[in-house]
Design goal:
Helix content: 25-40%
CATH superfamily: Glycosidases
CATH topology: TIM Barrel
Number of helices: 9
Organism: Epilithonimonas vandammei
Largest sheet: 9 strands, parallel
Protein name: Xylosidase
Structural class: alpha/beta
Radius of gyration: 21 Å
Number of strands: 11
CATH architecture: Alpha-Beta Barrel
Distance between the termini: 32 Å
């Protein structure tokens, strides 16, 4: 008994020493990544009059946005936004159209409120490698600050997800490392007021996307360097790592590099999320379930958490004009429901929904319009007229509540 008591004192003292060295707050709202539905959040849409000075960012295609050109396929329903912006797009009857800006604090307020209203547990806010040093940098910083503010207000968990699609060189890994230091020191992501940042057993959750894709440069070494820093640095580390990998990561074919070093990298992280967008259709849902079940068993064998990615549909016709409109149809919600059913059968304890607000690739689950503008040369995918604008929020919330019933 005395020896156990002594070991407990030593262990407690050791934890105190570590926590004193680390810059992350120990005043934690969300300290368990378990039984949670998290959404991806882009937060990248802008308008010319919003103060960001980046024009119709992500609405425009090659900086052009008018009755003939856009980059997005879903038109958001904007009835509830406090501030919207008149667009260059007019309906065939000549009436004006309006869109929101993510740069407005009121937009983030509304989006986080919706997450609370529909029981969505939190968000992975996307932080793009290529946007760390371009004209959109200040926009993304402002959006992140607002997300932390309203994450605290609405008690929604917040985690940073680095999209490293543009990663190429050894020095690029250093850019990410320095950015995480900046977020911790200057933005106080892991120690902001109220601290809505997501932790897992006192370790901040950081996600990294796009490791091991075929056709991309071999960046496994760079990912390894970033992961090692986030796990082991004495001031900025001790993080829980969630790694985004190709959908066929286990079999090392199709979208994945045929490189066993990807498996070795995966064994060093806490969770993986295989990117399913575009890989699952209504024609292969059952087949995909068998693949995911095998993936899950591999992860259990090597003690890696498995975070499936689900999405309601896909379309990027206006961005990629040779791609058909409504490439992966929503089928009145049937497609999303089939992915939700797969998740339930897998008996996983977390899920990642792609995405909350990505109207440019047609995956958004937030409120979209049943009557988008119609022009002679540009088309948008409308919400099924038989559905309510919040239909996909409701489905997502139902799944979130389903997780809460787990023991």
């Amino acid at each position: 008994m005395e020896r156990r008591y002594y070991l407990l004192i030593v262990f407690t003292f050791f934890n105190i020493i570590i926590n004193c060295q680390l810059k992350h707050s120990q005043n934690i709202q969300f300290n368990k990544f378990d039984k949670m539905l998290m959404v991806g959040y882009q937060g990248w849409f802008a308008a010319p009059a919003d103060g960001a000075n980046i024009g119709w960012y992500k609405y425009a295609k090659d900086w052009k946005f008018d009755n003939s050109v856009s980059k997005f396929d879903l038109w958001p329903d904007v009835k509830e936004y406090k501030k919207v912006y008149k667009t260059p797009v007019t309906n065939l009857d000549g009436s004006a159209t309006y869109l929101f800006s993510s740069n407005d604090e009121s937009t983030v307020d509304l989006h986080l409120k919706w997450m609370k209203d529909y029981s969505i547990d939190g968000l992975f806010v996307q932080r793009f490698f290529l946007a760390l040093h371009d004209a959109t940098r200040n926009h993304h910083i402002k959006v992140l600050k607002n997300i932390l503010k309203y994450g605290n207000q609405y008690k929604r968990a917040v985690s940073v997800m680095y999209d490293l699609s543009g990663l190429q060189y050894d020095k690029d890994a250093d850019v990410i490392i320095e950015d995480w230091k900046f977020l911790v020191d200057s933005i106080k992501v892991t120690s902001s007021k109220g601290n809505p940042y997501l932790y897992n057993n006192s370790r901040p959750v950081v996600a990294l996307y796009a490791a091991g894709y075929s056709g991309n440069p071999d960046t496994l070494k760079q990912f390894g360097k970033i992961i090692n820093f986030l796990k082991n640095d004495k001031k900025y580390g001790n993080c829980t790592i969630v790694l985004g990998v190709p959908f066929y990561w286990r079999t090392l074919n199709n979208d994945a590099r045929n490189d066993p070093k990807l498996h070795e990298l995966i064994k060093t992280v806490d969770y993986i999320f295989p990117w399913s967008v575009g890989r699952i259709t209504s024609n292969n849902v059952n087949e995909i379930y068998n693949l995911q079940e095998a993936d899950l068993q591999w992860c259990k064998k090597y003690n890696v958490g498995y975070l499936p990615v689900i999405y309601p549909g896909f379309s990027w016709h206006n961005a990629i004009n040779d791609s058909p409109l409504d490439l992966i149809p929503r089928e009145g919600g049937a497609f999303y429901k089939s992915l939700i059913n797969n998740v339930k059968k897998l008996k996983v304890r977390n899920v990642y929904v792609a995405m909350f607000d990505e109207i440019d690739e047609g995956t958004a689950i937030f409120k979209i319009s049943k009557t988008p503008p119609q022009t002679k040369t540009m088309k948008f995918v409308p919400l099924d007229k038989n559905l309510s604008e919040d239909y996909y929020l409701k489905l997502s919330g139902d799944l979130a509540n389903f997780f809460k019933k787990y023991n």
